[in-house]
Design brief:
By secondary structure, the protein is mostly helical. It has helices spanning 2-27, 31-60, 62-84, 91-115. The protein contains four helices and no strands.
C-alpha cells in the first residue's frame, strides 16, 4: 500500500510542477506588472521559495524532475530557434541555445540518476 501511495505522489508532484512551470511561463509576460505590484523584494522572495520547492522535488523525485527539466530545456531551445526566423541570430541567441542545451544535459543526468 505504501508503494502505491509513493507512486501516486510522484505523479501528483510531477503534474503540479508541470502546471506550475507552464503558469510561470505565462506569468513571465507580466513580470514587469508583477514587479510593480509586489516590488523587487517580493519578487525575489517568491523566486527563492520556488527555487527551494524545485530543490525539494529534485531530491525526492529525481526522475520526474529530470523529465520536467529536459522538457523545459527543449522548450527553451525551441523558443530561441523560433526567434531565428524573425530576425538574425545574435550573441544573446547563441548564449540562450547554450543555456538550453545545458538544461537538457542536466535533465538527462537527473533522469539517469533517478533510474539508478
Amino acid at each position: 500500500m505504501q508503494m502505491k501511495v509513493k507512486n501516486y505522489m510522484k505523479y501528483l508532484i510531477f503534474i503540479f510542477a508541470a502546471l506550475l512551470g507552464s503558469s510561470l511561463g505565462s506569468l513571465s509576460r507580466y513580470i514587469e506588472t508583477i514587479n510593480n505590484v509586489i516590488g523587487i523584494y517580493g519578487l525575489a522572495s517568491i523566486i527563492v521559495i520556488l527555487g527551494f520547492f524545485a530543490y525539494v522535488i529534485r531530491c525526492r523525485f529525481r526522475l520526474s524532475y529530470g523529465i520536467l527539466e529536459t522538457t523545459f530545456g527543449l522548450a527553451f531551445v525551441g523558443d530561441t530557434l523560433s526567434l531565428w526566423e524573425t530576425r538574425s541570430f545574435e550573441f544573446y541567441d547563441t548564449f540562450s541555445m547554450v543555456v538550453g542545451l545545458f538544461i537538457i544535459a542536466c535533465g538527462l543526468d537527473n533522469m539517469g540518476k533517478g533510474l539508478a
